[in-house]
Fold this protein.
Amino acid sequence: MRAQFVLSEIGVGLRRNLTMTFAVIVSVALSLALFGGSLLMSDQVSTMKGYWYDKVNVSIFLCNKSDAESDPNCAKGAVTDDQKKQIKSDLDKMSVVQTVTYESQDEAYKHYKEQFGDSPLAASLTPDQMQESYRIKLKDPEKYQVIATAFDGRDGVQSVQDQKGILDNLFGLLNGMNWAARAVMALMLVVALMLIVNTVRVSAFSRRRETGIMRLVGASGFYIQAPFIAEAAVAGLIGGTVACGFLVIARYFIIDHGLALSEKLNLINFIGWDAVLTKLPLILATSLLMPALAAFFALRKYLKV
């Protein structure tokens, strides 16, 4: 009987404050969708870091004849065979180095033509203008500075470049976007909480006669508060369910179908469905508990029981 009463009161309350209930559902849905999206973005950045950092190389570019005429780092002339052997020998001795691959001028020219063959500059380049290089795979990508300190400025070395620096800029941008999404999510969450508190207050005020009678006949405080708390929880749960739907639909249409980024950007290792599905219970639990707690504390002020 009590459960039936609480359920009937929930239905009455939701219908009586339909506009505000709808506003609560929308704000909770948007804020939790952004919350889930920010969590997935963090997972995506971590996945990309693990994928790309495992593939980055440190490149030691060697001086050629053209560099000797124009680059101060190659003022002593093009790299000699002895200098190349010494660089290779020193690299082999370093504990941070996993593999070393030599790229000749002809190989560098071939790779350049494969990647930038349509560029106007490609037609004017010749193999002797390309740089020989050593491509170094590190055991730990964070140890780039060890290679830079050892070889930067050495005779025959034009420059030492770390691909990780380029990726750091990309991941910095992605992290910045993620924090911006979290800021918007926090703002939406505050709006949702304010709407929940206001909805509970209006509902409690509109039913003050009923709650007064219940208090007079000896109903417990929890029994009086339960319908109001349940109304907020149900509205929040509906919003959380909508947010979960947003995330599932976004993952389906953006990555798998529709935009199909997984096919168009096959160099990016996108997060899988398991990452999405593990976030849904957290979103649903948050959507249920957050409005219920907000309603509970609001009732302590607006409903003296």
Remarks:
- The mean pLDDT is 80.
- The radius of gyration is 31 Å.
